[in-house]
Amino acid sequence: MGMCLPCLGGAADDVVVTPDPETRRRQLAEAAEKRQKETAYRGVKNPEAVERKRKKQEEVEKRAMTTSVSGGGGLKWQVG
After folding, report:
1. 2 in a domain, yes or no?
2. How many domains is the chain built from?
3. Which domain holds residue 38?
4. Predicted pLDDT of residue 64
5. What predicted TM-score, i.e. pTM, was given to this entire model?
6. Per the domain annotation, does 10 fall within a domain?
């Protein structure tokens, strides 16, 4: 029985203090964002290149949509 008392005496020093709710919320948000990035780029060797290609493709599509809406640069029908 005397063997257990020294173990219990240092137990108060080993207690982990939980951070305040705001810090905890921030840490959880950062961890979730990191997990999402990891799953989005799983198997991709160069994620920055993939991101650049995606943005470039979006730019091309956006430009195509604006030119088709304004009617410029397309084929014109001739009747006659």
Report:
1. no
2. 1
3. 22-66
4. 85
5. 0.40
6. no
79 domain residue, yes or no: no
Q: Establish if 5 belongs to a structural domain.
A: no
pLDDT digits (tens, 9 = 90+) for 34-47: 999 888 878 888 88
Residue by residue, DSSP assigns 12-75 as GGGPPPPPPHHHHHHHHHHHHHHHHHHHHTTT-S-HHHHHHHHHHHHHHHHHHHHHHHHTTTS-
Report residue 48: phi and psi, to 5°: -65, -40
b/e code 49-66 from CB counts within 10 Å (16+ = b): eeeeeeeeeeeeeeeeee
Whole-angstrom Cα distance, residue 18 to residue 39? 28
How do residues 15-65 score in pLDDT, each as one tens digit? 778 889 999 999 999 999 999 988 887 888 888 898 899 999 999 999 888
At residue 46's C-alpha, the angle toward residues 50 and 34, to 5°, is 85
